[in-house]
Design goal:
It is a single chain. This protein has helices at 36-43, 85-88, 130-133, 136-148, 164-173, 187-190, 209-216, 234-241, 263-267, 280-288, 307-314; strands spanning 3-7, 9-13, 25-34, 50-51, 55-62, 72-75, 78-79, 99-100, 113-116, 121-123, 156-160, 179-184, 199-202, 222-227, 242-250, 271-274, 298-303, 321-325. The chain contains eleven helices and 18 strands. It has two domains: 3-135 and 294-328, Quinone Oxidoreductase, Chain A, domain 1, CATH 3.90.180; 141-274, Rossmann fold. Helix 4 (136-148) crosses helix 5 (164-173) and helix 4 (136-148) crosses helix 10.
Length: 330
């Protein structure tokens, strides 16, 4: 099969063996989305080697249960050991022995086929198109914030970042009716949340980002700041604009280190909350009900044979979601 593999360099290979793990389903990948985590892995994040990709929609071609054959599915990306207390409680996201699709010890979705256990699969409603279904995994990660803390209509919330995940977070949080401010460096991307967020702040002076943002918000502070910039400057900015006893939610993963003064978190009694994967059901419901429209976030759909070019496009500053179409590969 064809696959995008990373091993010090990213390569498009045409003769990769199809591997179906024992007891799992074999899924033909229909579409796959390129996200920032994939781009950071290519830079060295997580130390992963193998087939990248974790945002996908596919069709089951082989399964231990014949009822699944032919179903169009998405798949939760964490595969647990099924033995530890977390797995027995039905949540493999923090199983210490987990594999993670395209991120940790498991071949990912940038291939014509992938393997996942049946309990990781969710059948898709026909009303959700393939190109929308690609967004379910990152939209679920956005919805996870609402599982971790309460955000009310009276909450004053800032989202740092204007990229792919930040866009989905803003759309998910908008349903709380909170006072929502988007902070980013790209006017065209901030324009995409016009009418969704209450305010937006364009950072033009990157030499002193905190000063630039503080000036535009008249030094007011936020109850909750969500850091989804994909940049080392995001957390220091979040610490500078959150209220005393406020909350910071960290969504960014990147290869590198952030320089910051954590004494602010101690003195101001700030809660810093890590946030990663979410359950798929809330994201599927938002798409099924047409409560969130992800289509404006699609920059381009490219055939899988152009996978290397697609990754380059995804890394461009003006790109949002680049989708690989496996069925278009020749």
């Amino acid at each position: 099969m064809k696959a995008l593999r990373f091993d010090d360099t990213l390569k498009f290979e045409k003769d990769v063996p199809v591997v179906k793990r024992e007891g799992e389903a074999l899924i033909e990948v229909l579409c796959a989305g390129i996200c920032n985590t994939d781009l950071e892995i290519v830079k060295g994040y997580a130390g992963f080697r193998g087939i990248l990709g974790h945002e996908f929609v596919g069709r089951v071609v082989e399964a231990p249960d014949n009822a699944w054959k032919g179903m169009r599915v998405v798949g939760e990306i964490n595969v647990g050991c099924q033995v530890c207390a977390l797995c027995k409680a039905g949540d493999a996201r923090h199983c210490t022995n987990r594999t993670v699709l395209g991120i940790k010890d498991r071949a990912g979705a940038f291939a014509e086929y992938l393997s996942l256990p049946l309990h990781n699969l969710i059948a898709l409603p026909a009303s959700i198109a393939d190109e929308e279904a690609v967004f379910i995994e990152p939209l679920a990660a956005a919805c996870q914030i609402l599982e971790q803390l309460e955000i009310h209509s009276t909450s004053k919330v800032a989202v740092i970042g204007d990229g792919k995940l930040a866009q989905l977070i803003i759309r998910a949080l908008a349903h709380t009716k909170c006072s929502l401010t988007a902070i980013g460096k790209h006017k065209d991307k901030l324009d995409l949340v016009d009418g969704i967020s209450k305010h937006s702040i364009l950072i033009e002076n990157t030499a002193d980002i905190l000063y630039e943002v503080s000036r535009q918000i008249n030094s007011e502070k936020f109850d909750v700041v969500i850091e989804a910039s994909g940049s080392a400057t995001g957390l220091p900015l979040a610490l500078g604009i959150v209220k005393a006893r406020g909350k910071i939610v960290l969504k960014t993963t990147f290869k590198g280190n952030a320089q910051l003064d954590l004494s602010q978190a101690v003195v101001n009694e700030i809660q810093i909350i890590g946030s990663r994967c979410g359950r798929f059901e809330p994201a599927i419901k938002l798409l099924k009900d047409q409560s969130v429209d992800v289509r404006p976030l699609i920059t381009e759909k490219l055939p899988f044979d152009e996978g290397l070019r697609a990754v380059e496009k995804a890394a461009a500053a003006n790109s949002m979601k680049i989708i690989l179409q496996m069925s278009a590969a020749s």
